[in-house]
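Re-running Phage protein to confirm reproducibility after the cluster update. Everything else is unchanged from the original entry.
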Amino acid sequence: MSEEKNAFRESAIEAISDMAQHLPLDCELLVVACRPGKKDFDLVLPSPESNLNNALDALRRNGLSIDGDNDYKRDLLDCAVGAMAFGSQGNNRPPAGHWGQRFWDIGRGEAEAREELIAALKLNRENLRACQATIHLCGGFDPAYVNDAQAAMKVADEALAKFSI
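Result of re-run:
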């Protein structure tokens, strides 16, 4: 630790004790020092009774926004997106009670819904193909129906080509 940081740390620890004496008993005290964009001076000094979650809640009440950009939020969102991706793939389920389970469940649910829709589209496409074959063999049907059905089969084929199920 640099001399400058060490000197500040010692001063801050003394100041915490002095400030804590003037606070109501149920207050928590936390001192944070940082250089924006640099990690060389990050210093977080909680009093023994402080809880970082309570400090974060206080910062939110006083202007901290989820809209701002920071490493913690990026990492947290990467975890949520990863949990949804794993759920979509049906692997790496989080342990019981883990906060990521709800995101895993979202991914799994979306994958199951997609699989169900693909199966339904395949079935409808095959039935439409069978109808087209019957019309072709029997003749005499309205050509507009044949053209519309072939166009619908093309749309189904294009949609199905996007998925490898």
